[in-house]
Design a protein that fits this description.
alpha+beta, 135 residues
């Protein structure tokens, strides 16, 4: 076989291989992006950040989580927020820890509610379900 023909075949094979690898990577990325694990991580991290902001605010405030979370249950404790699906083993719950200033408490449970609200009243932060039209 001619050297030129062999190099052309090798180049075509390399291009096909690169296209297949890129296609597989895109498929895996899409599947991971649509998984509930990713959604649970995002919700837990968002709630952790919301807790930090509420602890820094003076006075009273109510913050509504901007997305529907009806697939999940959420538990808020004074040091962590846990997001999980019904029937999941506790070992695979997604937890995010946070630190509250001295004297602050945090508590609440939301079970498959579409909308979540974090309410701060003085030094107490409460997680609860809320209505879609609530601020």
């Amino acid at each position: 076989m001619d050297k030129k023909a062999a190099s052309m075949l090798l180049m075509i094979f390399e291009i096909i291989t690169v296209i297949l690898v890129v296609g597989m990577m895109i498929g895996v990325g899409r599947a991971y992006g649509k998984s509930t694990l990713t959604a649970k991580i995002v919700v837990a991290e968002d709630l952790r950040l919301m807790m930090d902001v509420l602890a820094a605010l003076p006075g009273q405030a109510v913050v509504k989580y901007p997305q529907n979370v009806s697939l999940f249950n959420v538990i808020l404790t004074p040091g962590a927020v846990a997001v999980f699906e019904e029937g999941e083993a506790e070992q695979i719950w997604v937890r995010r820890d946070f630190f509250l200033p001295d004297g602050y408490t945090a508590e609440g449970i939301a079970q498959k509610t579409a909308w979540l609200c974090l309410e701060k009243n003085q030094q107490r932060i409460t997680l609860r379900g809320c209505a879609a039209d609530e601020p």
